[in-house]
Amino acid sequence: MDSSRSNDVDDRFFSNAASGLGKRERTLAALLDAAVDVIGRKGMEAAKISDMTTAAGLANGTFYNYFQSKEEILHKVALDLAIEVSRRLDDQMTGINDGPTRVVTATSGFVDLVLNSPDWAAILLDAQEYVSTPPEGAFQHLIADLTRGVEQEVFSTQIDAFTLSQIVALIGAAIHFQLKHGRDQTLTHRLCIHILRLLGMSKRNADSVTRNALARDIHI
Questions:
Q1: What's the pTM?
Q2: Which residues contact 66 (CB under 8 A, 6 or more apart)?
Q3: Do the Cβ atoms of 121 and 114 come closer than 8 Å?
Q4: Which of the residues 35, 103, 134, 201 could staple to 206 if both were Cys, CB 3.0 to 4.6 A apart?
Q5: How many helices (H) and strands (E) does the chain have?
Q6: What's the pLDDT band for 122 if we cut at 50, 70, 90?
């Protein structure tokens, strides 16, 4: 990827979060930041453990004090990034109580934030392919918003692992397409409508909620 890429996220997210902690925690954070950098530049298939340890300034064997494979570190990084993005989104939606509006706002914000950080995008997209089981806890805020919509009787679809996998696949496809072809807000609009339709809303209502939600001036 182009080294001039600009991010709205911290290039040393894990190391900054571990600042002031013990040596073991700071070493782990350095490995996680290195994994984000290496996978972001090379992709999961081409990335090597030695690339990660070199980028972190650590001996190759240090990796195995924390992880057994690059798939394991991808799982850890993807989980932590997904939780961080979800937390930021949830913090920005204080005062929004309507389930569908929250889903659209979070979806749009998630896409925008990830597109602003190609490295984070690479991690989250590769996790869909290489991590067989979605990281537990990564979708807690989404599940809460979906449940809210069911309780408000605007969503009629059963909220289970299958529904979540469909939503995640739609979001991943939208991110992948825009990374390849460029940003397109109309695609994000269509994505949100598809998700609301999947959850049981009519096309008319889904379009209305999406238009109103995307008109809000919320910055993640």
A1: 0.81
A2: 27, 28, 31, 73
A3: yes
A4: 201
A5: 10, 0
A6: confident
